[in-house]
Amino acid sequence: MEASVRWTLVTAIAPVAWGTTYFVTHEYLPAGDPLYGAAIRALPAGLLLLAVRRQLPRGSWWWRSAVLGLLNTGVFFALVYVAAQVLPTSLASTIMATSPMVMMMIAWGLVAERPHVRHLAGAGIGAGGVALMLLTGADQVGPLGVIASVAAMLLSSLGYILAKRWGGGVDVLASTSWQLIAGGLLLLPFAVVVEGAPPHLDAPALLGFGYVSVVATALAFAAWFAGLRHLPAATVGLVGLLNPVTGVLLGTVIAGEVLTVRQLCGLVLVLAGVLLGRPVVRKVKAARTVSSVH
Fold this sequence. Notes:
294 residues; mainly alpha; 13 helices
């Protein structure tokens, strides 16, 4: 029980850190150059983790790192940037909130983790809570943004489960560093072709990228992949719903936004969905007691 709670709390570092990137990106990072922004976010984070572990890929991990880097960082970051530019954040976050359900289905097929009814219920309740918190119905919906957001959700969900399937026996910090470096390197040539010269970064932008790269990427992805090693994919996916919750609460605390009754109800539903996804606790203690009596 204690181990499950501990790993759930470790996993929660990731969506909470990711939720803060909305504010940091909006306030401190340059608005254009999404490909450079994604590469600047991924590469330093990967190099930092590599400096901590100092392990290079071996054997099949050379191509696995490229595949996971493409799915979890490279293409994912670029698609998220596209979605953020042409789609309201509320709708993009709601689409991403369907990720737990998709992760459960992929995990069922790839790692034989059959979702429990309460996991499915938690995913539905949590996604409904995110929609209640964020959707207003007043924004116009661009098809390109929807396609980018759905693609980002599908590719990252597949990447997370592949990381879980392939991760056994490999240090989590090392494998995370390889993915981030691969994703960043794959992004760089596209950034040069599409966006030209790198953007000029002033002091606030450098500090912002430092936070996003170290905390919201290196630390967050290491915590996320560690959670995938020790918890069911369904539980990890539902913990990810804390991402939009963090964004809303941060806007309330720092930006002075006021929580409406509807948003509070949505927040409660999201937290209920996360709680439904907690790992099943088997009554080991009771079983040991019975065996000791015999």
